[in-house]
Amino acid sequence: MDKWLNVWQYLVALTRLVIATIIFLVQHRWLRFWPPRDRPLVTVRQGKVRGISSILPNGKPYHYFKGIPYATAPVGELRFRAPVPLDRFRVPIVDCCVERADFVQLDFFSGLVFGAESALYLNVYTPVRQLPGEQHGIPTAAAAASGSGLPVMVFLHGGGFACGTGSSFFYAPDFFLQRNVIVVTVYYRLGPLGFLYLPEAGIEGNAGLKDQPGMPIKRRVRNMTLSYDMKGM
């Protein structure tokens, strides 16, 4: 009896995982090709980013901006080098409505290599404090402004510096957003491209650690927590 119960629980968990994966992929494709009309637009030092407004499970509104580039793509002469901060975005408005590619890595299950070498991105999720009389939907500019001064948690994924992702599919920010905490997840270089050390060739090593922008953010944010997923690190 216990054996069949375990099998049933496994099948239920597997079914839930498959359904969640399908929903995530459908939403990803839908937002890429048919994003909503009213979307938050934020100006930062490098230019403008446009995100998505959504609703948390507890009914509170929030904004998210996925795939904000924080450094020049580490390719060509910049490969193995320390990250070069962006002065300006390449386009007037960066569309940040969906997840971008993970950094290139080996899938240990299939043996295939996937991802992009240019994947130095941030995902930013910010709650919006509702003003009296505001309805669910797109928050007003005044409501968005009221979210300033919130604590920030910067999350760095695990994976032994060889694999991993900052995707919301694995690291959903809902728990912290519902407690008025801004969440930032970071994509950084992995494997040999991030941690090769060959001083005789001018490769100083630990480029992946240098990518992790916790300290630059710390200089701009008073109330910040740096969080790591320690599995495999």
From TrEMBL:
UniProt-listed Gene3D superfamilies: alpha/beta hydrolase
PANTHER family recorded: CARBOXYLIC ESTER HYDROLASE
Statement: the UniProt record of this protein carries the keyword Glycoprotein: yes
Provenance organism: Anopheles albimanus (New world malaria mosquito)
A single MF term (Gene Ontology): carboxylesterase activity
Entry keywords, A to Z: Glycoprotein, Hydrolase, Serine esterase
Highest taxon of the lineage: Eukaryota
Enzyme class, first EC level, given as a word: hydrolase
Matching Pfam families: COesterase
Protein name: carboxylesterase
UniProt EC number: 3.1.1.1
Family according to the record: Belongs to the 'GDXG' lipolytic enzyme family. Belongs to the type-B carboxylesterase/lipase family.
Carboxylesterase type B domain: residues covered: 39-212
